[in-house]
Amino acid sequence: MIIDAHQHFWIHDPIRDAWITEDMNVIRQDLMPNDLKPLLDKSKITGCVAVQADQSETETRFLLGLSDQYSYIKGVVGWLDLLSSDINLRLEYFKQFTLFKGVRHIVHAEPDGFMLDTKFINGVRAVGSKDLTYDILVRENQLEEAHAMVKRIPAMGLVIDHIGNPNIEVGHFDHWARYMKQLSQFNHVHVKLSGMVTQANHNSWTSADIRPYVDFCLEHFGPARLMFGSDWPVCLLAADYEQAYQALIDCLIELSNDERSMILGTTAIKFYKLFS
Length: 276
Description:
It is built from nine helices and eight strands. It has 276 residues and is of the alpha/beta class.
């Protein structure tokens, strides 16, 4: 069973989605479950985890509503205000929805030090206390701070989105690798092999460009802590769905069938407690 552990849906709003600029016309439109389903079917992918792209409870409800309508959506990672004094109440409310699996905050849009704010750390701890997961979305230059945050949080389900967003196009490897290696020492930290083609040159990337980053993650995290994510529709900035998926498959060719199965499905199923 193959699970796409990271993709998004949206009804495009030019004000809310101002980050989608005019040069991103391919994703500057409504992109919904009926658009994704044929792509999953073509690549023989069973289901997906829908991840928030807007920081509002409205977004969380939107994704949960879609999961009621489309059975191939196996889990939802939503947004809640982790700084709120009511975070425990909000978590309890959303836990009533079986497919609500975790929370994400778009930290790469926040100032330095945000992840070390006591309120934020307490919010992430609250997520873990409810047996939910937290997706760590940061830029490469925030990995050191992410490491400091993880040290202050009890063991819980944590996953680094988009392998920590290294700048693959310019070959930023050493700095990225230094802090990813430190993060790998926490056995509860996982990594999504996602978003890599959009960190490479959009027009000329090849699987060889992302291979060193995948190999590093395999060496330090191992297949049991890695999961495939397409990052559709954002991946369309650099590749169609099948190309983005095949780029990862090319990097896993030397693995055993069991190891590939972990990355392509088993890890995500266990991490997000899908089908339970």
